[in-house]
Amino acid sequence: MDTLDLSDFLRFLVRRWRIIVTLGLLGTAVGAFVTTATTPQYRATSTLFVSLQDRGDTVMLNQGNTFAQARVRSYAEVVTSPHVTEPVAETLGLDMTPSQLARKITTEVPLETVLLKITVTDTQPSRAARISNAIADRFAEVIAEVERPDGARLSPVRLSITQPANSPKAPTSPNLVLNLALGLVAGLTLGTGLAVARESLDTSVRSRNDLTRCLADAGGPAVLGSVVLDQRTSRHPVATDDDAFGRRAEDFRRLRTSLRFVDVDAPPKVIAVSSAVPSEGKTSISINLASALAEFGSSVCLVDADLRRPNVAHALGLVKDAGLTTVMIGQANAEDVMQSVGSFSVLASGVVPPNPAEMLGSAQFRTVVRSLADRFDHVVIDTAPVLPVADTPAMASAVDGYLLVARYAKSTRGQLTDAVRALQDVGTTVLGSVLNMVPAKRDSEQYGYGYTYRPRIAGRRGWLRSRRRLRSRGRPATIGVFPAPTAPTRGDTAPAAAKEGGEHH
Questions:
Q1: What is the DSSP string of 181-195?
Q2: Edge-to-edge strands, sheet with 401-407
Q3: Assign residue 2 a region: left if phi > 0, alpha if psi is -120 to 50, beta otherwise?
Q4: Cβ(391)–Cβ(310) under 8 Å?
Q5: Which of 246, 366, 434, 451 lies 20 to 30 angstroms, CA to CA, from 3?
Q6: Residue of 347, 344, 270, 285 whose CA lies nearest to 313
Q7: Is residue 435 within 8 Å of 266, Cβ to Cβ?
Q8: pTM check: above 0.85
């Protein structure tokens, strides 16, 4: 993954939010499970005060206090010794060894004090308190015996219990809030790390910025547009037939406009549409690009030159057995096998040949394409993908340039780079690229206003509804109602600028 700035980092975190949230919730659930599965532990603490028996003057008291502070830290090590734990275990009848009892005991010496705190942790609150008090009593006896000089009756050091241990009312562990917080933090951290790892390994293009950087690194073309994902594409292959002012239709109008600015001195006439690998949606792009060009008032012919897996005729419901290959082998003229879908003409693939690459690289193919270019304003050619086969680069001499289709979250940077270089190696022009099947919520780099700002009467259905509404009110049906839109014809001589102005809704 390339070096990310803060905005890119936040963007990919949003993109991977599901895995981060899932692991965060999983971590929280683990924290809750640990809390319920852990046996509660109770802590009881007794406090001892260390002093000297000799009560002399102030100087002696100060010296005694200094002595006690120096000694008390050493005393803390004696608390868990067998001299203390073994008698306590026997006296209380505990079912544990002295060493096991010692592991339940912790000591604390507050800084610059002569206090010693003995804490016992146990699964039973009352037993924790009994053990703590018994340890304190036995510990005081042991220290008094250790510090008593030979032949002396009393020890100069005295340990007094200033605060006996009480039975705790609530367990100190497990801590539900703490465990839930730790589980959540651990889950979010793991989720973020996994998201970063997946992002590093994911080389697919997920935005126009990704595609732009990828093509720039390969010395390739600009990104001319993006097309939103629409689940109705299979039922309505031509976007304007489904919703003339919908977002998908507008995407193709934008693509059409961008193509016009690729080379204003020599605008491309024969445009081949391809992709790096199969299933990128190039056929849908080809069909709708032809439709968008025809909507602008141009005469357009769509040619299915994918002679391995032709799909144009199937998508549009046309006859596929007669078409390009039929014309190339001289069995028919292009006019004889040309089919119409209303606003543009279609030359289907015809019978699939055994040698597609040789046919597409032949002079006969160039002749057919040249004759179509003489007859139509634009020729859009749907081709095979670039990387799996040699068909698409073979036709380079017959086209003005290629439009490379990339699919959101599927096309990888390596595939696109290899495709661009394969086309550049044959000396052809790559006009640009288009990012296809972009989820509506992801395509935030453009749009924002245009798709809610549409004509109130859209298409023939809206026109008919308006006529019925006006008739029911007893008003003339022509008042305030535009004629139903019709497909442009070749004889349409309206100025191009006027027609183009209608696409900015």
A1: HHHHHHHHHHHHHHH
A2: 223-228, 430-438, 401-407, 270-275, 378-382, 300-304, 345-347, 339-340
A3: beta
A4: no
A5: 434
A6: 347
A7: no
A8: no
